[in-house]
Amino acid sequence: MSVQSAAADVDVDLGQLFASLARNWLRILIAVLVVTGLAFALASLATKHYKASTQVEIVPRESVYTRPAGNNDGDKPILDEQGVATQVQIISSNEILKQVAQKLGLSRLHEFDETINMSSISRVLILLGLKTDPMDVPADERVLKKMREKLNVYGVEKTRIIAIEFSSEDPKLAAAVPDAIAAAYIAGQGAAKRESNSAAADFLAPEIADLSKQVKEAEAKVAAYRAQSDLLIGGNNSVLATQQLAELTTELSRVRANRAAAEGTADNVRKALQNGGSLDSLPEVLSSDLIQRLRERQVELRANIADMSTTLLDNHPRIRAAKSQLADLDAQIRSEAQKIMKGLAMQADAAKARESQLVADVNTLKAASAQAGEQQVDLDALQRDAAAKRQQLELYLTNYREAASRQDRNYVPVDARVVSAASVPSEPYFPKIGPIVGAAAAASLLLTAVFTLLRELFSGRAMRPARRVRLEPIDEVPMPPAAHEETPIRPEPAVASAFANRATEAQWPDTAADIEAPVTVAAERTEQAESPVTTEAAAPEFVSEPEPVAAPRPRSVLGEIDIEKAAEKLIASGAARAIFVSPEGDEAAASAVLVAREVSDAGLRVLLMDLTASGAASRPMLDSGLFPGITNLLASQAQFSDVIHGDLYSDCHVVPVGTADPVLAMRAADRLPIIMQSLTTAYDLVVVECGPADAQGISRLGGDATEVFLSMLEPDDEVTQAAVKLIESGYPDLTLVTPLGHEPPGTPVPGRRSAA
Known about the structure:
CATH class of the largest domain: Alpha Beta
CATH topology of the largest domain: Rossmann fold
Distance between the termini: 40 Å
Number of helices: 23
Strand content: 5-15%
Structural class: alpha/beta
Radius of gyration: 60 Å
Low-confidence stretches: 1-9, 467-555, 745-756
Number of strands: 13
Oligomer: single chain
Largest sheet: 7 strands, mixed
Number of domains: 3
């Protein structure tokens, strides 16, 4: 089967196309000069317009010495963007514009009223109905319309300044109009303040008279009600009954406390006398002078008895006499204590009687205080009414005096001032001859150049036949049969076309869908693999000169090589297949990914097939594990064009694990050698990541020009045993490679490469 190119298209000859500009330079120059001259003539003959500007600042003008009492700057609202916009609308209002037009006599100028000195051409157009008759519009509206066309009022950004711009054919008029508008605005603001001041004074005068009468009536009602209800005011501005009740309540509390203290003391003395206890612990007993003297005599007798007991017996008359006197003293002390107890009892009875009297007085005052409280509520209401009216009257009087003084002195400061008056412009703002002529020259040059290029392009003189590419016919090879077929199938068009295009193109196929020509695989690839000399000679056609690599990291005792050395070995040997075994698991699978990308960056067409169970090699390249892959191809659920995907971070292609049932896919494992043969004919190098596989597991993947690599992270016993088993099983040229310390050559492009 053969493929032929039938391209018969044409290309644009850019040299011939742009050469037309040099051939037609005179025509272009004449066109530019004509347009530039016309622009210069029109700009020179156009009516000159002048523009002037006046700036008005919106700021409070009230002095601290004349500000009304109780008023401060915080009481005034802050003029924000909305406030400035409001003042802009006031300045450009019809009322102010009419005042300015009348003051300056703008209605008598042809610039503002086209009915004055109307040209014959305009009259003819009006008669033919081609132009609206300006006489149908009132004169004031015609003038206002022209003024608005020439007027521009705007607030300066982030300030409280309003700019008033006006343009006119007369430079003096251009300066006079914005000044007149600013003066009319300030005068209007002053008139508004004077009107507001007069209105306030006119309002306050009758209100003050009415409030004076109301205050007198309210205060009279308060005095009459106080006399009628007999509400006498005592100390602390309170009703006398309430004050007396408070005093009696305080006295009652004191009497009750005294009574309780007297009763308690009498009880203590009574208990001490009844129980025969000691009276020395009672303060009331000890405070009696008589008892104190008796106690002293008692102590003296006891001392005498003690002295006599040393020489006399107890029945001695002197000792008996002394003891008799001591007993009399005890009887006298207890008698005095009973008198004290009776005195305390009498004191408690007196306090109790006083308490009863006070209770009766308090009850009487309670009734009087309750009645006085009810009357006080009504009195307070009358007093509040009178106080409110008095306060309002005082406020009105203060405001009226201030308004009257301002009205008499005609003092009404306006919250605006002119900060920059308009000056008579010396140069017109329109037309600007230089910019107009320059823009006309540039535009005419661009348009004539584009017109010349388009004419040359459409005439066909700038077209040339496209270069045709002829593809040599290649032989056909069988493809692996499906699970339910026994006849061989041809390789997928994507894979075969990729190999066919390799002979005529030096670029990398973007996706498997870009190589759709139904061609088959030739024997060129096999011959290249069998002849080392031919491979080395043909290497410059596919592989660019490798860039200098960094110094290799120190090797271990196993003698492994890094990613760059592995890629150089594959390129130099012309290997068609590279089988990677990773006994340490998914992390070591980074070697296959990095080597595939390194060889791809050198310019070869590389495909990586992921045969790991977890997709450790294809996931970093596709950022997903949901793409169809080798299991879908083995299960006859997809074709080659469906399972070949582009690496997101390099020009390498990848066949992921896939999404089909692994058990169903392994039933067609015998098709793997045929699939590998088909892929090696379409790609310069097929890299296979087998994970922790053994020699029997990779036996189906080998072939001519095959290199076997063992990926390692750490030189441990697991790696050593795996290497020994592979060497003993028939792979003596096994190469150990490590991804540690690898850095891609050159400056990485963001989003183009990442770590595997």
